[in-house]
């Protein structure tokens, strides 16, 4: 992860939506036109974990945490995920499309050209399908690749609190088949955490998803260890995400597997937690590590992968080269796309980001500043991008 090839005075030839050639500028093949770049050209950044389809931010949760109320107490008082569930259930699809369109544009403006987007704020069939349809509509309307993930197992909804088994059965036997039938998701995620879904429940849900052709992902070992990383590796999941409380056995399991460890440092910072996922232990054990924003309305309201990269260096102890790898080729692997993007290489999708900096390491340095000056997706320059709050 610490090895990146840096070319100076280089050229990249695009042919349609693909990269045709990369090399020294003086040896570049002839082309129809040339675009001069000021700064550093990166592969398009890939954000492999977001919850971008939501209604309002959870401002009350934020204030309660500042006053010392913990995550579980906030949830017990009606806040947390279930607050966003009530909000999303009450909104129309058109309302969610308008809100999410602005958020995807903001993610793109910060260099994310491929973005995983989860459902999970519906927790009932129609509300989950509504979120996934929003993702599908925007994926066809915006110059960005959206990877839809079904997260019906984000929490137990209030109406099933007295009968967890019935909700797990609903997810497995009704929600997953309906999502697969409509072709609305390519992945299925589960929040495997004490107090949310147990490893046994998570196994049942992901096994059902795999039967319907959905790749597995796991929210694993975020606040407490539960063996989620081990389960993700055992099931061949694309990724195990969060991992601030991963066990030594979990580190070994991920290192011995093709499952990517997706770390979300902005979440722990926003929650005021001192603990972070053990990036150095994971990397040195041989695990593939990716970074993501975890963009959501309650625990990580950031659209900036460059900010997350800076936190990867300052909070996780990663090298600059490692954080670049973590938001490009490794993030692509966390979505099953490593053969197609995450590199500036012949044959790859022509998704490119320009950072207006002199040294490539600066992309992970200017904390909170957006250094992205231009973006190409599928070989075409994106128009000037609208900020989230305009």
Please describe the topology of this protein:
Layout: E1 10-15, E2 18-24, E3 40-43, E4 45-47, H1 59-66, H2 71-76, H3 81-90, H4 93-109, E5 112-118, H5 125-141, E6 145-153, H6 164-182, E7 187-192, H7 199-211, E8 215-220, H8 228-235, E9 239-242, H9 248-255, E10 260-263, H10 265-270, H11 279-285, E11 289-291, H12 305-314, H13 320-326, H14 329-333, E12 352-355, E13 372-377, E14 380-381
Parallel strand pairs: 4-5, 5-6, 6-7, 7-8, 8-9, 9-10, 10-11
Antiparallel strand pairs: 1-2, 3-12, 12-13, 13-14
Helix pairs in contact: 4-5, 5-6, 6-7, 8-9, 9-11, 12-13
Question: What does this molecule look like?
Answer:
The structure is a single chain. The chain has one domain: TIM Barrel, CATH 3.20.20.140. Helix 6 runs parallel beside helix 7, helix 8 packs parallel to helix 9 and helix 12 packs across helix 13. By secondary structure, it is an alpha/beta fold. Strands 4-5-6-7-8-9-10-11 form an 8-stranded parallel sheet. A 4-stranded antiparallel sheet has the order 3-12-13-14, with no helix packed on it. It has a two-stranded antiparallel ribbon with strand order 1-2. The longest helix has 19 residues. Helix content is 36%, strand content 18%. It is globular, with a radius of gyration of 20 Å. It has 14 helices and 14 strands. The mean pLDDT is 96.
